[in-house]
Each structure stands twice: as structure tokens, then as C-alpha cells.
Amino acid sequence: MFDTSIHKSRKRWGEILIQVWLWMCAGLSLITTVAIIALLIVESLQFFSNVSPLEFFFGTRWVPMMQPQSFGVLPLLWGTMQITIGAAIIAIPLGLASAIYLSEYASDRMRAWLKPILELLAGIPTVVYGYFALTFVTPLLKIFIPNIQVFNALSGAIVVGIMILPTIATLSDNALRAVPVSLRQAAYALGATSYEVTTRVVVPAGLSGVIASFLLGISRAIGETMAVTIAAGQTPNLNFSMLESIQTITAYIVQVSLGDTPSGGVAYQTLFAVATLLFFITLLINVISQWILSRFREVYD
Amino acid sequence: MAFSDDQAQAQLARRHMKARMFARFCAAITWAGVFLLAVLLIQISVDGFAWLDWQFIDSFPSRFPERAGIKSALVGTLWLIVMIAVISVPVGISAALYLEEFSGKGRIAKIIEVNIANLSGVPSIVYGILGLAIFVRFFAFERSLVSGALTMSLLVLPTIIIASREAIKTVPMSIRYAALSLGATRWQTTWSHVLPASFPGIMTGVILALSRAIGETAPLIMIGALTFVAFLPQSPWDEFTALPIQIFNWVSRPQPEFHQLAAAGIIVLLIVLLLMNATAIYIRSKTEQRLK
Question: Is A147 within 8 Å of A170 (Cβ atoms)?
Fold first, then answer.
């Protein structure tokens, strides 16, 4: 009857091969995740076969290298928290204020200048911030606080705050700009001032994006490594003072990998135990931030 | 009436006053950020410029600050840029093409998408530990450029995939329909139409991601990039050092001379980053003109 050959398409093996390649590339991300989690958990289990979880999570002394050893992670966790809280106190209000300026007040020309500058600030390598903390911020602090140590939590927290500020500012700016102009116009039409429009209409309307930007900034502060290693010191302790040397989880990992720790020993395994802790804390915060974005996103048409 | 006219006027004036103060406050904060960047750059220039000469570029590290240089670090960083690009760019773009053009909206695609978003938030030092365990130890690539480049590639892949997807999304559906309706296969459409149309956007994202990688220090320390290298790597299997590692090494020494060397090293690093960013901006402006 009809010649149906036109309907039969030849199998194109080349294209199938290409699709398999593309699929493998996308799948690589899953393999990476599985590899990270498997590695961290397997090595941590080895660690916990030598050290009781009770000692790890509730111990208050972190002395993995010297006898008598002690593996309480609280001092490291506290160091990380000091840096993170300090950085958040600086970066959240200032970042939000910058975002409000960029999205509500700045002219288009001004914005075109300021946004790339903020992005430049975000692109500066963290080792540079470490240098800045050690050679500029700490000497400056010493003028006001004479008894501050050379390595201290405060200057670490300040530079990490400066570091995450652009992240918070640009992401919050995006969130605020996604709020439709009609909402602002409605508020202005009711006689609200620009302050009232911003604080009671625009920021609440874009709140999911703003909070997500805070969480992302905080998670970056927790994972931040070089600036705190250089500026905040290598002394794990549980003091409340921000003026003394501390040690964060990340700084400890750097300290171990710089030294000649033989692989296989308990000291080496601590690396994976604290890295697992770090990984799951940042993962938790990132997941919460994504959940807020998807759950509370206001969609305007 | 609750308010007299005067009271209402006074209250209105207060509210407008508050609004003006708030606007000024926000502007001042933003400009403080710019000021900070200026302070940072000036501080580093003041410290480092005196040390920045050809001898500094062309010398190996040394115990004596006046003889020390960044030759091996600069060459190591250039090796890394090229190797990371060669590994991560094809893989990243392929993954983005799969997710945008081939995967559909299935469950697996959704899982991969969430997974990539999470991977981009993993601290870089965790990638360093992964690289140490897998590339340095398990595959026994030792502390080579290969280990470093593979580790860094895993680190930048999520960023490259996300940026590439954004660029691919901007290609209008009509271009795809036109190609498909003329009988092109899906891959022909992708290769000859979607990819060329989104290529400038992809390259911009890729270069920005790579410039991030170049400044990363922690993963390289983890996989054991050396801090004192008085030779140039001859092949990808050689040991190496990189600019941020060398800078970190100098910063951690107590003598102020080495801090100044670190500042000079930072200037070189920032120049490398600036060149990469300028390339990205150039590509972007070039293509914007073409689209007009």
C-alpha cells in the first residue's frame, strides 16, 4: 500500500550515546553527594568505635593531639557559633539595609554602579579577608580594646560579617525587587511614607526570599575557613570572650591537614567526625532555606 | 475628632522625617560597603606595591623575604585554571543541557535539581576532604595537579550547572520549535541552535565560577598542595602550589616582611581574578550588542 519508510526513523546510535553522556554528567552530582555522605559516615563510624558519642557531643575539652586526649567537640562548635553569631549580627541588618537602598531608593544609574561593586566584594577570595583581619581589623580594634589578643574571635567575626554581607544584600535585593510595583503604589495611594511602604509592605511581601538570604549567609559563615583560620586562632575553648583566640571546626580541619597526622589514627579520624558535623549543620540550614523559599513564596501575577 | 489639625500636621511631619532618615541610613550603609572595599584595596596596595616587581614574579619562594617570589604559585594557578576548565566546563554544560533539554519534569530530574542546589551550599573544605580521600588516597593521584583540579572541578560543577541552566532557559522556545519542525532531531536542535544561542551566557557563568575556584584555598590545603615549592610542575602529575596557598603561607608567618609579601601576592591574585572577570563582562557586552 503505502511506503511507510518515511515514518520509520532509523535508530540513531550516536544520539543515544550522546544522551547517555549527558545523563551521566547530570548523574555525577548524585554520585558526588553519595560519595560525600558515604565517606563521612563510614569514617565517622570508625571514629565513634574509638570514642563514645557521649564524649564527642557533650565533652567540654578538645585535645586530640596530646596526651591525655579528650574529644569533646563543644569548644569547636562554640568557636564556630561565636564567629557565626557575630557575623550575623553585623551582616543581617546591614545587608538588609543595603538591599532596601538598592531596591527602593537607588536610581537605576546608581544601582548599575553599586551592584557590581557588591558582587566584586563577594568575589574576593577568603584568604584576602584573612589578611585584612590580621593586618587591619585587629590593629584597629587594639586601639579601642588594648587587651585584645593578636588572634581573636571578634576580628574573625567582623571580616566574616563583611564577607557574607554582599551575599545577603544581593539576594535580598532580588527578593524585594520581585515584589510587584502595584503593591507599593497601593500603599502610597493610601498615604503611606516610603518608610512605611518599605517596612510594612515590601519587606513582608518579600520576606521568604529575605529570610532565605539570611540563612544562606549564615551557612556560608559556618563553612568559612581561611579568614577564621588566619584571624581567629587555633585555641579551642569555651570562653564567652570574643577577645581571645578560639578555634572553629573549619580551622581545626586546616590545622590537622597542615600537620603530619598519620592516616588511620584517632587524631586523623577526628577530621571526618568534625567534618560530618559541619556538613550536616550546613545541609540542615540550606534545606530549611529552600523549604522556606518553596513553602512561603508569595506569587504575584 | 481624635486629632486636631495641628497634631495631624505634626504627626505627618514626623512620619516624613522618619522616612527621610531611613532612606539616608540605608544609603549610608550601602556606601559604607563601597568604602570598605576601597579601604581593603588601599590597605593591600600600600603594603604590597613596594615588593611587586619582576623579581617577585620570577622567583621561587625563599626563607629570605627579599629573595622570595611567586613563580611556582602563579604557574600552579595557571595550570589549575586550565585543567579545571577542561574538566568542569564540558561536564557542567552537558549536565545543564540534560536537565533543561532532555530530562523532562520527572522525579529523577527533580531530585537531581534539589541535589545540585544542596551541593552548591556544601562548605568548600568538605570537598577538600572528599578530594583527599578519593583522589589523593583511593586513586593514588598523590598531591598532584590532577588531584587538585578534580577536587576543584567537583566544587565548581554545581555553580557552572546552575549558571548554564539559567542561560539555556533564556533561549526562546520558538527557536526550538523552528528547528524541530524542520525535521531536526532533539540533539541537532540542542547542538546547532540552543547551545550557540545560550553560549555567551554560559561562558559568563563559567568564567565567574572559575574565578571563584581560583581564590579557593581550603580544598587545596586539604589535598596537600605544598606551601614551599621551588620547581615548576612539568606535567599534571607533578606536585604544585597555588597563589592562595602561597599567600596563606606568608600570612601565617609572624614577620611583617612576609605579610607585605602576602599583600604583593594578593595584588597578583586580584589581577588574575580581574582579568577573568573583565573577560566575562566583555563577552556579555559583546553579545548584548549582537542581540540588539
Answer: no
Tell me what ipTM this predicted complex has. 0.89
Q: Name the helix (H) or strand (E) containing A38.
A: helix A13-50
Type and span of the H or E element at B155: helix B145-169
pLDDT tens per residue across all 301 residues of chain A: 455 555 556 678 888 899 999 999 999 999 999 999 999 999 999 899 888 888 888 888 888 777 777 888 899 999 999 999 999 999 999 999 999 999 999 998 988 888 888 888 888 999 999 999 999 999 999 999 888 888 999 999 999 999 999 999 999 999 999 999 999 999 999 999 999 999 999 999 999 999 999 999 999 999 999 999 998 888 888 888 888 888 999 999 998 888 766 666 787 888 899 999 999 999 999 999 989 988 877 666 5
Kindly identify which residue of chain B lies nearest to residue A259, measuring between CA atoms: B224
Cβ of A130 within 8 Å of Cβ of B157? The answer is: no
For residue B91, the distance in angstroms to the closest alpha carbon of chain A comes to 6
Residue B110 sits at φ, ψ, to 5 deg, of -65, -45
CB distance A232 to A130 below 8 Å = no
A179: which DSSP letter? S
Q: Which residue of A has its CA nearest to B98?
A: A22
Q: Is B218 part of the contact surface with chain A (CB cutoff 8 Å)?
A: yes
Cβ neighbours of residue B3 closer than 8 Å, sequence gap 6 or more: B11
DSSP string across B250-285: HHTSSSHHHHHHHHHHHHHHHHHHHHHHHHHHHHHH
Q: What is the least distance, in Å, from the CA of B251 to any CA of chain A?
A: 6
Q: Identify from B9, B155, B217 which residue to disrupt to test chain A contact, counting A C-beta atoms within 10 A and taking the largest count.
A: B217
In the block, residue with C-alpha cell 583540579: B149
Instruction: Name the pTM for this structure.
Output: 0.89
A287 and B118 within 8 Å at the Cβ level: the answer is yes
Name the residue among A105, A136, A271 with its Cβ closest to that of B23.
A105
HSE of A51 in the Cβ direction (CA atoms, 13 Å)? 25
- CB-CB neighbors (< 8 A) of A194 in chain B: 19, 22-23
Of A21, A162, A195, which has the smallest distance from its Cβ to B36's Cβ? A162
Q: Amino acid letter at A27?
A: G
Name A251's Cβ contacts closer than 8 Å, sequence gap at least 6.
A79, A225, A228, A229, A232, A233, A234
pLDDT per residue as tens digits for the range B245-281:
999 989 988 888 889 999 999 999 999 998 988 888 7
